[in-house]
Every structure is written in C-alpha cells, then in structure tokens.
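lol so apparently i was supposed to do this last week
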Amino acid sequence: MSKVSRRAFVTGGIAAAGLAGLAAAGVLAKRHGLVPPDNGGIWGPGTTLTYAAQRLITTRSMAREFPRSMISPKPFANSVDPLGDDFKHHQDSGFADWHVTVDGMVAQPASLSLADLKKFPPSSQITEVVCEEGWSYVAEWIGTPLHEVLKACGASPQARYVFYFSVQKDWWESIDMADALHPQTLLTYGMNDGELPVGFGGPLRLRVPRQLGYKSVKYVTRLTVTDSVKSFGKGLGSAEPEFGYSWYAGI
Ligand SMILES: Nc1nc2c(c(=O)[nH]1)N[C@H]1C(S)=C(S)[C@@H](COP(=O)(O)O)O[C@H]1N2
Ligand SMILES: [Mo]
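anyway here it is w/ molybdenum atom bound
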C-alpha cells in the first residue's frame, strides 16, 4: 500500500472505529504505533485519537510564522520558581560554563556549551508561545535546530523520543521523533534582538512551536534519546501528565 493510501486507510479506520467505539480505535492506533505515552491517563482514548489523527495528517505541517511587524512589543514572561545558587553562579559568569549534555541512544554522547551550539548553522523563526491558560505572544527565536544536534551525535534510527530536562527538576518533557526532527524545533539561545533573557528561559530553551507553551522547557541542561518512556517518572512521557495535562499538546 502506498504511504498516502496507508494513511487514508489508517485514518479512515480509526475514524470508523471511533464511531464503533473508542476501545476499537485504541486497538487500531496501537497497532500502528500511534499511542501517546500517557494514553492511560485521565483523558483515556480521547488523547490517543488526537495524537493519532495529528501524526497521520499533520506530521510535516509547520507552526505558523509571523511577519516581524507582529512581534509582541511586551511579551509576557511567565513567572518561574526560584532558580537557586548554582544558576546564579552561571548567570554571574555570563553562562560561559553552561552545557547541555546529549546521552542515550546516540553514537557519540556529547556535552555542548553555548559556544559549541553557536557553531551549528543558526536558524530563526517568528512564532507564538501559547499557554494552556489562554494567553500568547509572538517573538523571534534564534538557535540551533534540534535535528542538527541529533545528527551530529548520531541518534539511532530506532529512537522514538527525545527527553529534555531543566535545572528546574520539576520541568522535564519529551517529544516524539516527528517533533524532534522537525525543522522548527529549536535549541534557542537568542530572542528578538539579543541573547535569550533569563525570564524567557535563557540561556537555553527548547522551543517546540507546534505544541503548547509547557512543552517549551526553559533552562535546558540535558537531552536523552530513547526508545522507551518507561524509566522516566511515572512512565507517562513527561511531568505534565502526572498533573493531568496531556503529553501531546499539539496546536
Ligand atoms: N523550566 C521551566 N520551563 C517552562 C515553565 C517553567 O515554569 N519552568 N513554564 C512553562 C509554561 S506553562 C509556559 S506557558 C511557558 C511560558 O513561556 P514564557 O515565560 O516565555 O511566557 O514556558 C514553559 N516552560
Ligand atoms: Mo503554560
């Protein structure tokens, strides 16, 4: 079956099964690797249908990009918990020793400074941060596409997820390879006309513009490439589903 007709077949099948019963749709989605890690969470089969439909139909779609004239003059930096003494030391030294480690299913694990990241071809995008609470803003984001780093480290073709961790221990997330390799997923070190300010996640934030704001974790220090979500927290893919939010937060 061609890729397109397979898509049509699976999508149609899931929709039809959806009418016949969500459980049947779940079986079909599982067979085609379209079940999100938190499918057993409070949203149950509904979250599977959302993720499966998105992955079949919009895997290659781009987040909306805006003209420069639409950059928000006063972007809103959501408040964060105190960042601690270690972070203050980094801040005092201009983040010269800030590193992001890359481990897991990679041929060459790495520890990259901001200077190392800046050696990759930079990419910029004017996209929107959308919070689940209902506010948003538009900014320009400058950084290294995550796929460049994954390629340089030799991420395994068997990998299914990239986990990312913040100096804030409560903030850890993961995305599937469709988003990890997506051209707009950016290890961001610049915003508008300068360095990424601390309030907005500086020195390093993973921008995932195809998903809600909470997937764009600030103060990123570690990336782990893996084929299983099991050993992370409660095995739901990220911290958010443990509080009732969806792992997949596509917009
Ligand atoms: N490390 C960390 N990352 C974070 C958060 C946080 O509190 N800490 N808040 C998240 C939420 S809920 C949203 S909506 C966005 C807010 O981004 P902003 O502060 O640039 O507006 O950051 C996300 N990333
Ligand atoms: Mo948010």
